[in-house]
Amino acid sequence: MIKVFKLPDLGEGLTESEIVAWLVAPGDEVALNQHIADVETAKAVVELPSPFAGVVSELHRPAGVVVHVGEPIVSFDVVGDADTPDAGATDADTPDAGATDAAAPAQAEKREANLVGYGPAVERGGHPQRRARPGGGAAVLASGLAVDDPAEDGSAGGQAVGDTAASVGRAAPDAGTSAVTDQVTSVDQPAVTSGADRPRSTPPVRALARDLGIDLTTVTGTGRDGLITRDDVRAHITKSVPATGLPVTTPDRSGPEAFPRETRAPIKSLRKLTAKAMVQSAFTAPHVTEFLTIDVTPTVELLDSLRADRGFADAGIGILTVVAKALCIAVGRTPAVNTRWDESAGEIVQFHYVNLGIAAATPRGLVVPNIVDADRLDLQGLAAALAELTTAARAGTTAPAALSGGTITVTNIGVFGIDAGTPILNPGEAAILAMGAIRSRPWEYRGQIALRKVLTLSLSFDHRLVDGEQGSRFLADIGTILADPARVLTMI
After folding, report:
1. pLDDT at residue 305 greater than cutoff 90
2. Does the annotation mark 287 as catalytic?
3. Which CATH number belongs to the domain containing residue 323 in this structure?
């Protein structure tokens, strides 16, 4: 029996997703809940499991195209009638596209929520089997996948994730959006290959290859077990790639057609969501930004002493960790910065917890995953949470649920060598704090001029929720803690 699997809602009410890569091909036999594709939503790259055990009969959409929720993406040839079909899977001959088979009560008891919140799951204690990949073993993440993970101090980097993606556009088509889509289909996904022939790589690496117009089957992987890394893809740019139309040698700059004057690419996925959210925030909430420049030498000295302490040496505590803790303490003294304006209900929502958002720049664009109940964590707990967040952002595996529910945000622009800025509020939040680079500057210290470590903080807040006095007091509290960490004893 042929079963058609339609793209499900992968969470947060998202209406479309891009198929990053198929891990199966027609004729492949798959197991229940086997990882069959990488799908990129507007928030994250997620693994799509199979709702059936059977043989792949047809891939309805190639990799590299955007598919709307409810559209067919793959058909399976299953033996007999499926016991627990998914809400996104239907019989091929069912007139109603949204109709599903009814599951028996006994079968329903065996269902468990899986990765993307849909479909059948194996019995407890069992594990879905994945199709073997070349080289053996599960895919291993290589270093330098999606983002940098620089050190936290302003001069050498920070916990905020740096954007290292190379940006190489594809040639502009003569027609409109349809031509762009055709180009993506023909260039990014030349053909569907079998699992045995498919090169081993990760979703961020495949996305980079698509952006550069490189066929991964022509790239030699230098990672573990032949895994293709981002460096492998970049190095391949200098080689001959006839299949993608990239030049073999540097073109003559003297000719009028030596370089394209512009390139075009469709606006989709994260970039579309970010643009919509930033416009909504900028033109809905009246932004006010204040700045505070402080001497953070005592905090830098504190961090040096913690690194020398065996009990904290491996904790990874840096300047962003201390700023995050100072922010959480200051929120307790100025609760107005931890609120939300609910226009539809005509209410101001006061949060009695801090879900701290960390703005992270990735090759896919800006994401803001948050640390749940950050106010309940000590320095070591915050450092561990930041490290986990950074690892997920680097691998492009941040769960959609981790990208919502934040109450206040901090962003580290100092990792880019920037001193200050005017950050835009994350929609639904009342405040966002930007920390600049730490620089050695001549500074007044005990009546004399001395070379000190200086940091500028930038606070943007929603003036509907936060008065100038409240925003100023909140920013001053954070500055006081960083300028004299011992003063925190007077605040808690």
Report:
1. yes
2. no
3. 3.30.559.10
